[in-house]
Fold:
Amino acid sequence: MDKVANKKIGVIDMGLGGLPILNNLKNVFKNDDIFYITDLTITNYDNIDIDFLNILVKKNIDLLLEKNIDLLLVISDTIVEYCMELVNSYSIPIIQIVEETIDYVNEQFEYKNLAFMACNNMIEANIYQKNFRYNHLYTLVADDMDKLLYEGKTKTSESFAQTRACLLATAKKDIDVIIPSKIHFLLLKTEIYEFLKNVIVVPIDEVLTTKVIESLYKKNPLPQKGKGKVIIHINKSISDKVLSKYLNIKYKIILEEGGKEYGKK
Structure:
């Protein structure tokens, strides 16, 4: 087997919470192909039909498998909460955000004071918190910040105000680490450090990228040849304003309505 054979990486999401990981993946896997797919039609997960959600996820995984991917990266904690039985039924290496975040936090920050930043539905699901080993654990309800990020509003007076409001739960607390449940919360690090200067924000994107390297290449070198591409499959158009906040790489978007190409950068 060629030790430097190019790979194909599949990334599945719900919404846009994990989209910025493509920056890390592309910067590391310069010569490999990366296929990202997400569903943008579901906006409320409070009363989600689980069977319907599994149908959507199966459809998207099957599309990725048609690309002959070598690994599936699950970056939606909603998929982890509701669809992992389905995901694990596929015979392909799988890396998922919840497990890797928990393992990293427990390894690096065991018995520290932690603050978990997530939307309310994920806080209530308790799939993260019950597995952390901590001294004190606080929860930061970030629904308003999540909405703000979907609108592409970072480094604005509104984003600083929303971040400050979210962090109020940590006022006068000795917080060591903030654990974002969505990768796009990392886009607010400037705002977070404005109010908590010495806190560590867990770099979920880097953690997952490192796991992909370990899984795909182990001790082998990454390939030095090839022209890797990033293809984004979506079922609803995304504004350029939002994309410019999320991505700083070259990519092609396929709008999954007849398979037509939506745009390039």
Q: What stands out?
A: The mean pLDDT is 91.
